[in-house]
Amino acid sequence: MQRQSLTLEDVAREAGVSRATVSRVINEVPSVDPAIRETVRAAIRRTGYTPNRAARSLVTRRAETIALVVSGAGEEDESAQNAFAARVFADPFFGRIVSGVVAFLRTRSMHPVLMFAESGPARDDVLAYLREGRADGALVVSTHAEDPLPPLLAREQVPAVCFARPALPAPVSYVDLAHGEGGRMAAQHLLDRGRRRLATVTGPLDLPAGQQRLAGFRDALERAGMPYVPIAEGGFTLDSGAAAMVRLLEDHPHLDGVFAANDPMAQGVCQVLRERGRRVPQDVAVVGFDDSSVAITCTPPLTTVRQPVEEMARAMARILQEHIEGERTEPTSLIFEPELVVRAST
Amino acid sequence: MQRQSLTLEDVAREAGVSRATVSRVINEVPSVDPAIRETVRAAIRRTGYTPNRAARSLVTRRAETIALVVSGAGEEDESAQNAFAARVFADPFFGRIVSGVVAFLRTRSMHPVLMFAESGPARDDVLAYLREGRADGALVVSTHAEDPLPPLLAREQVPAVCFARPALPAPVSYVDLAHGEGGRMAAQHLLDRGRRRLATVTGPLDLPAGQQRLAGFRDALERAGMPYVPIAEGGFTLDSGAAAMVRLLEDHPHLDGVFAANDPMAQGVCQVLRERGRRVPQDVAVVGFDDSSVAITCTPPLTTVRQPVEEMARAMARILQEHIEGERTEPTSLIFEPELVVRAST
DNA sequence: ACACTGTGAGAGAGCGCTCTACGGCGCTCT
DNA sequence: AGAGCGCCGTAGAGCGCTCTCTCACAGTGT
């Protein structure tokens, strides 16, 4: 690869100026004579010069790279580790996060390195990567509660921003959704549709998001004079949603409205309802959460509570950038409001 | 960040040896006295030293990073560009590719930078990134035919490996599936199930994968004495599959078997069939392609032709690594065999 | 006893860039 | 007219690492 042999020195010689002047032109330092600037630019074009990033990073101490970490709780088994990335991306949620992050970063000429921290060694890799200065900070998306990564990052004083409030206490910034508000909206919508025999399939209750969605849902019903609601806990997967629905139907065969704490579970709920001869939405109305792509491909398409994921991801990247630039030093939280998207399932 | 102030020099002083010796220990050069090696290791542990990657890259001319590029044909409109990443990851396919790539890279302590080259400027960014030496090579996944990126990479002599044979001729390595064989398997399976009035919803026919799947399907039917098969072209999306099925049913209301060239289209096919009163598989058997996650969540679960995507992605990463290391200099192709996964839709 | 090989550690020259000094120039101000 | 003050460029010192070259020393053969 002879493209590496071109250095600032070569361009400087070509343009008849010094190395430093070329560097100034490249870094757009204003105090350069416009005529000289043009000469240098022409020389750069002529030679096809591209600065070497490692050399620049060495002195600026900036990698212009951030780590985008998907962090799990600890998969012990090796095949589960290998499938981790595939499982993660099976949820359209992550694609939307990536989309938002990239949308922000590309305007700043920064780039994301994709890392998976699903086991202890993988977590150490992430930490080492940051410590080596290969990335300037980390964006963390946890798939499980009790993710040990945020506290570790905080301890190493690495700039970091989490998607969702970390369950383990750690002084890091995060963006999150007003999950409770989302649960409340789902309840209110079902009530507005005239449903009174409601139930909910919750997310994992060790996850703050799971708890808060349930709490908001309950809260709204309590205010409407319905303090007791049947609940069944799910695991945010289609199968777990289906299983939870089976349990609910056994005890409460006459229910007419279900709030599932995410869309895949709502799809499972719909499948079970249909198998048991209930029509959606005529007999039972179903509300999901997240507005992921399954909400649209589901039969029927799901009414769901939308998280502005892309916007949240963009904000997450922006806050990280501010931490890196030193414009922001204290951990910050930023909470977004959900939005109800009404489709055919209610 | 004072963690940057620790250098080789500090460790050398701490261990009472020279900088070079510490470097040797870190790079596991064998010709170091075991006793000294231990002393140095202890000093590294004591000080918590981590090498600075930029400095190392500067001299080794290795970034230990590869670009994982998702390349489109050219989205002009800005909001389409922003949604590109989300659309890409809506297809579980990419999650599986990422999974395979990461599985290989992590054993080599290399890392993937995620890049999207859906427009001209974005493509230039990718090229600049490689030229700056921030990545040692590129893994390219094209979403459209006529992707201009592979020839550009070839021209710049950047080590690169594509997922699927590039439509535009370029001397780059690639991994691919024996798509024709997959089409043949689908046809044979439908014939084995006793179906004789077959049709197919093809992929985009400007894409080699689309052409080859169709060609294989036709070939098998021709051998079975059925030279004419109704076809309708789709665009690899659910909606396009549904629309194609509508057209097929208009002209051929009595068909009893459909091969859709990917799973989302097969799902669209199933939806239309159900709406038009056909039971799947009793009245019409449906075969998909890819074995993506929709194949499982679809009603009914899809019989489909599976690509060993993770394995292909792993191989792609391995070949790239070999190119980077200089162990492999000529463009190489590696073709994988598909596998039929039988589920409820046939 | 001597040169001869081999082994392991140190010295030092960069890798390509940025950035702080500093110097020369022409201008204004007193 | 001389000092002062921008303004624009240049020189040169690193950033932290790798790696070649060199050298010291011990062990071997004659």
UniProtKB/TrEMBL annotation, chains A, B:
<dbReference type="Pfam" id="PF00356">
    <property type="entry name" value="LacI"/>
</dbReference>
<keyword id="KW-0805">Transcription regulation</keyword>
<keyword id="KW-0238">DNA-binding</keyword>
<dbReference type="Pfam" id="PF13377">
    <property type="entry name" value="Peripla_BP_3"/>
</dbReference>
<dbReference type="InterPro" id="IPR010982">
    <property type="entry name" value="Lambda_DNA-bd_dom_sf"/>
</dbReference>
<feature type="domain" description="HTH lacI-type">
    <location>
        <begin position="6"/>
        <end position="60"/>
    </location>
</feature>
<dbReference type="InterPro" id="IPR000843">
    <property type="entry name" value="HTH_LacI"/>
</dbReference>
<dbReference type="InterPro" id="IPR028082">
    <property type="entry name" value="Peripla_BP_I"/>
</dbReference>
<dbReference type="InterPro" id="IPR046335">
    <property type="entry name" value="LacI/GalR-like_sensor"/>
</dbReference>
<protein>
    <submittedName>
        <fullName>LacI family transcriptional regulator</fullName>
    </submittedName>
</protein>
<keyword id="KW-0804">Transcription</keyword>
